[in-house]
Amino acid sequence: MAIRDWHExxxxxxxxxxxxxxxxxxxxxxxxxxxxGVKGLSAVELxxxxxxxxxxxxxxxxxxxxxxxxxxxxxxxxxxQLKAVLEMARxxxxxxxxxxxxxxxxxxxxxxxxHSIGFQQREQFGVLLLxxxxxxxxxxxxxxxxxxQASVHPREVLKAVLDHHAAAVILTHNHPSGDPAxxxxxxxxxxxxxxxxxxxxxxxxxxxxLGDFGRWHSLAQHNQMQRNDL
Length: 230
Fold this sequence. Notes:
Elements: H1 12-19, H2 26-34, H3 43-54, H4 57-61, H5 65-70, H6 76-98, H7 106-117, E1 124-130, E2 136-144, H8 154-163, E3 168-174, H9 184-198, E4 203-210, E5 216-218
Parallel strand pairs: 3-4
Antiparallel strand pairs: 1-2, 1-3, 4-5
Helix pairs in contact: 2-3, 6-7
């Protein structure tokens, strides 16, 4: 049965308009993006097949151009559209953070970071560089490691801070394994960088670790930024 023959409240676009985007499944959201299916498959059925093929929505969103275009029903035009949508979402969150002191709220920062590095399959370490009012100057990814660890050099963090005249920073990295809980090495790294930054009178406000499915962990929120906790 074609989607146009479904009950109005079951069609993805109409369902979104009536009940909001959060009411849609991953397959329904992807179907709206795809717009049409392929021979023998509705857009929703095609979307579900693609999710099964990639394993999850984050894996599809983070797939390479080659991986994306090799999947049935996709191609370069859809790949370009997808990357444009993701970049618009990232810029939307970034613009909100630049308007004021949003860095007292770890959830707001985490949502921005999820759109920046949250879908990456390789571990990435970045720094949010902030001015004296804790407004965003810029976000830089400084290191990309293996699937399990990234080698982070304090001198590169300090260089980024000095280059942008930052007064404070928020550290961040992703856990491709999916679990955002900090490891002992994460805590040790936070201590090392916090102490190095203190030498140049720059505050380390937080270290936010990103997992899968929108999960995240704020060391500041869990009182793990104090030296005794590290």
